[in-house]
Design brief:
By secondary structure, the protein is of the alpha/beta class. It is about 45% helix and about 20% strand.
């Protein structure tokens, strides 16, 4: 029997967080009695992150660096009916697998994402996450750190993620919307790490992210935007 869920995680130098993420996913699958496989695709040619997963039962592979490339590689290896794309530093909410099944069965949607929360007690992060959740509900274009999920046939019809250096998450959701597809937004948040904001500075990181998405929607090529993101 094929697994119901394939959880695909693109990684690059994520040795510090990946083991805890995998353990959390295993606990959730067990708690919900859900059938799922975990696939980790490393963008590092030396595979330093997936080395830490030896003996865990996780499927691992090397992929060309870039989230779009790595997620497509993971999808090619997946056997599940529902493909979930998750960042290495993002945790699913309790009951996530049942929530995804319900969203896909009851709404007529073939793809979706979760609301967003950021793992910090600081009020500014609650504001940032709240704005992101409101924006995704209004536009129906969530971002990749909200945990994308697709029926396998929907993802295959789309041809997977675009192999661009940045904005592959926005691009695929815009493409999905252009086909007249509805995108489900589950009102339970995934919890993503605050580490990037804390490392780069909250204001700088937030304003940069907003600027990048505006420039992309105005037609600036992802290759140019990627130079600003690094």
């Amino acid at each position: 029997m094929s697994p119901r869920f394939s959880i695909i995680i693109p990684v690059l130098h994520e040795q510090a967080v990946i083991t805890a993420t995998i353990a959390n996913l295993g606990e959730l699958l067990c708690r919900e009695d859900s059938d799922g496989e975990i696939i980790v695709v490393d963008g590092d040619a030396e595979g330093k992150t997936i080395e830490t997963l030896a003996g865990t039962g996780v499927k691992t592979a090397l992929g060309i660096k870039g989230r779009g490339n790595q997620m497509n590689r993971g999808a090619a290896l997946a056997e599940g009916d529902i493909l979930l794309f998750l960042h290495a530093d993002t945790r699913l909410p309790p009951g996530a697998f049942g929530l995804m099944e319900t969203a896909l069965q009851n709404t007529g949607c073939r793809a979706g994402a979760f609301d967003l929360a950021i793992a910090s007690d600081r009020p500014v992060f609650r504001m940032i996450a709240g704005i992101a959740s409101i924006r995704s509900r209004l536009t129906r274009i969530p971002y990749g750190d909200q945990g994308f999920f697709f029926h396998r046939d929907c993802f295959q019809e789309l041809g997977g993620f675009a192999t661009i250096p940045i904005m592959e998450d926005v691009e695929i959701m815009r493409r999905l919307k252009s086909r007249g597809e509805e995108i489900a937004i589950i009102p339970h948040p995934v919890m993503t790490s605050a580490r990037r904001w804390e490392r780069e500075g909250i204001i700088r990181c937030t304003l940069r992210n907003w600027a990048l998405i505006i420039l992309y929607l105005c037609g600036v090529q992802p290759e140019r935007l990627a130079r600003c993101y690094r």
